[in-house]
Design brief:
The complex is a heterodimer of chains A (457) and B (372). Chain A has 457 residues and is an alpha+beta fold. Chain A has nine helices and 24 strands. Among the domains of chain B are: 4-46, no CATH class; 61-179, Cytochrome Bc1 Complex, Chain D, domain 2; 287-367, Cytochrome Bc1 Complex, Chain D, domain 2. Classes of the chains: A alpha+beta (457), B mainly alpha (372).
Chain lengths: 457, 372
Amino acid sequence: MNTNDMSAGRLVRAPEGFLGPEGIRTVFSQARAGRRDFIRGTLVAATSAAASLAVAQSNPVPSAGGDPNILNLPEHSKGLGQGVATDGYGKPSRFESNLQRRQSPGLTQTTQSSVSFAPLQSMFGIVTPSGLHFERHHQGWWDVDPSRHRLMVNGSAPEMVAKPLVFTVDEIMRLPSVSRFHFIECGANTGMEWGNVAVPTAQYSHGMLSCSEFTGVPLIRLLEMAGADLKKGKFVLAEGADGSSLTRTIPLSQVLSGEVLVAYGQNGEMLRPENGYPLRLVVPGAQGVSWVKYLRRIELGDKPYATKDEAIHYIDLMPDGLHRQYTSIQECKSVITTPSGGQVLLDRGYYNITGLAWSGRSKVARVDVSVDGGRNWRAARLETPVLSKCLTRFNLDWVWDGKPVILQSRASDDTGYVQPSYRQTRAVRGTRSIYHNNSIQSWLVQENGEVKNVQLS
Amino acid sequence: MFSCRDLGLALASLACALGVMAGPPASADKYPGVGRAATPQELAAWDIDVRPDFKGLPPGSGSVAQGQDVWEAKCASCHGVFGESNQVFNPLVGGTTEQDVKTGRVARLTDAAYPSRTTLMKVATLSTLWDYINRAMPWNQPKSLTPDEVYAVTAYLLNLGNVVPDNFTLSDRNMAEAQARLPNRQGMSTAHALWPGQELGGKAKPDVTGSRCMRDCPGAITVTSALPDFARNQHGNLAEQNRAVGPQRGANTSQPELRTGVAPTAPAVTTAVTTASLAPPAKTGGTEAKVALALALATKNACTACHGLAQKIVGPSFADIAKKYPGQIDYLAAKIKSGGVGVWGPIPMPAQALSEADAKTLASWLAAGAGR
């Protein structure tokens, strides 16, 4: 099926019967009006109990002859607003403060060797606002002074790199730059869910995932400037300047492709300190730990390095007791972000099922969505842009009839790879590998409108 | 990975390269004025990595007994005296046997019932352990150990796992012998498709792939796992973690779940916005600011890794310390700086490298009751 065909994503048969375009419009307008009524009710009289969600909300014309929000002009329509540059660096609306990156309680004992999850359930499109980008630190984050930061390029032996170089951040930023959109996902994303359901929402199940426009210099350019022997060299070691001085082995073949960047820009501004200011490596498609932050050194060598984060941590235990080492690629994966676990649908009727799909190997080719636990599937619309090794937004029209349903999404990529079910993944990898869980996520929409994280047999 | 031993060679090579070439390499011509040659001292200062073939390993040695001294002073507070502690980080030692030392495969890794995976159960390359300690330990003072101390601590860890005897001294000359006894040295595989290149052999074909079925797909559709009711609010109130406008809200998990057809006693959803952002900014200079400063210092200096506000972690809770030493600012400040052992138990607290002023701030907060 052609996934660019818009008809593929159009509303088709809902479980309870067919709704025509007229019916959809009616349901939609009612649902929207119902929400407004609901919002007014809770904001104005927050203490009064809301109606049971299982009961469809109506929006009768108020007895006063109209909605007071329409009839009584609000202050912002009748007064003078605030001036320019009230806040030199603008912030989200005060009504948006629920969107925070958050820790998962009990996951770690310290905040410096820990992770915070991005609120995927409330985000739009594909770009992660930099302040909501997920965090993973091994020994705490720093706000490094860029005037004192240096990047060194050298070899594992003198013959590997003819002229080891030192760059200032000024010099890196003088070089020709490229800007590219890529996702970054921690290898342990969804790791808590290998054996059973462990967390309630998409934030905790999939929120070690973010996507930004990164700006920087292709690493290959710096290696060439240093006179690197790209025949003898097979591996690149990237090293950070922070306390953990995190190191990872990167294949030179990927560096040669030009897609590995020494980045300083993120969504039009400099990297955030939590994300490696002033320099980080961008390794498209690879798990986040390879994207070394506070990047201070690049070494070209002929052998892999078996660093702490590829020989003690970030190794995947298989059922036979062997650990897979140097696992890097984030395979094709998707998740419905709304409706998703921990949310409550306000009414029956029309909903836009929306979510994210991505692949560490290529572009997302298609996303199928099931509303019956995987028995039947429909192709979702892929929204532009659809880019390689980048988040892709998908949407699908859906009308909820108030009965329990199980929502799933299944992505496939340009290599022909199809996202597997939990049963398929566990059959090969067991339940203890921690890393690289890209199984299909299931959300149960209950009759009361509440959505739960579930796994199926 | 130039080690100190490579320095002479590096110097010679640099001199040679510069002498032979009329100018910098051709590609450098393209960006004149950008980048400069690294000096041998700079390379030596930063090029600290050690490879599995021990390239980069500096000369030095350390005994098990010396390692124990370093361990008890600088490592035991997080990892336990015997590397077994699970309180701050995953345990380092345990789960390996004499048989594993012979086979090079840790048998317990196939035992799903075994509670955790220790570092010694996992690590297949001794260089990794050495490099880890050298670059990143102790956790709050990384890169403070001398090479001899790193050898000693590595030897002590191996001794705790019965990999080397009590009288063993580890050095750059016998690393390979110790490597040959590492319990999980045969335990790694690169036979997978998750490496983005051909350098490691590996496999081209992914090990798992899904189905393309679109209609009447086979398989039971039974919910086999969901969060238990008691965990409903474990991640906090989800109503406060979702946008307060849009097609859905977060569930109010501070209340029991709304059952269909049952009149609710409280709203199942709210347009809750955490009030913090709507409240005026906290006063500065008052008690609140002092508490905030103390808490920030406790977090920044990793005090909270071992001390909970109200609960014991490795060390006593801040509340318990406050109860024991009310008003004793000087004593507490001195104790923070010097560390100690024996007052609260056998696990030592290392001396803390923070300023006098910061120690005083923390001590004042503790002496005043460690309030929030």
